[in-house]
Amino acid sequence: MGRCREHAPRHGFRFKNKLYAVDASTIDLCLAVFPWATFRRTKAAIKLHVGLDEAGHLPSFVSVTEGKTADVTVVRTWIFPAGSVVVADRAYMDFKWFHQLQAQGVTFVTRLKRGVRYRVTDTHGVRRGTGVISDETIELTSARGRKAYAAPLRRVVYKDPVTKNRYVFVTNNMTWVAKTIADIYKSRWQIELFFKWIKQHLKVKRFVGRSKNAVMTQLWVAMCMYLLLAYLKFVMRVSWSLHRMLQVLQLNVFERRLLQELFTTPSPPGPSSPPGPQLPLMWA
Q: What tens digit of pLDDT does each residue of 90-114 get?
């Protein structure tokens, strides 16, 4: 992970703060084969919690729990660097956790759940053509909400120009333009793609062993494999996708070849190269 961070590209925003997208994905298991991973009455599952560094899309925070573990319970144990930005969906909306992030000097961006009671203390102007409908400063009015988070919050309403969907975001950042807040939440989609990729290509849905230790080992091996691929891509400046790199490695597992040769596309022959042998279409 340390080597990957040294060579990883920056995220696509102007600010230099670290940007993390947090989410969890449930991996279904057979209850008869994995009785230790009880999830529901007739179902077993484990949950993979990831904090994805948007700089290089690296899984900087990883935890594996039982399927019934709440998402926010795990992220409360993670210590994000001061000054970083954390983006999460509505499943992580917990004002006690937000207070913890605020105390650590961390910016958070998420979607506001319906039913949250608040009052508007200030309104801010919005730029036309950005999709931002409103930009407000709010404070929670319910006794439970004020006890958990007493500081002011920022509420940004955004309408996607393509899908026409309306989104309501909440954050503790009061300085960045409202469109940046919407773009930060949009970048959260990268962690969804990360889960989809590892499930399709790193075999984390079918396990070789049945014990808890075997399952945990296979998941950590998958994370290590992802980081190795990312490191090779960063260092060699390969334009290939990780999937293509993985396919090439699988085809050359038992070949003794330099990695540079595997991931370098040979240049086409020049115009002066003699043509290769050709077979006649018909015998004379």
A: 999 999 999 999 999 999 999 999 8
Cβ(89)–Cβ(23) below 8 Å: yes
Query: Residue for token digits 């298991």?
Result: 29
Q: CB count, 10 Å around CB of 219?
A: 19
Q: pTM value? A: 0.87
212 domain residue, yes or no: yes
CB 75 within 8 A of CB 49: yes
The answer to whether residue 80 sits within a structural domain is yes
Look up the domain containing 46 and give its range.
1-88+188-239
- Split into its structural domains, the chain has a count of 1
Where residue 72 falls (left for φ over 0; alpha for ψ -120 to 50; beta otherwise) is alpha
> Domain for residue 278, yes or no?
no
Whether 183 and 13 have beta carbons less than 8 Å apart is answered as yes
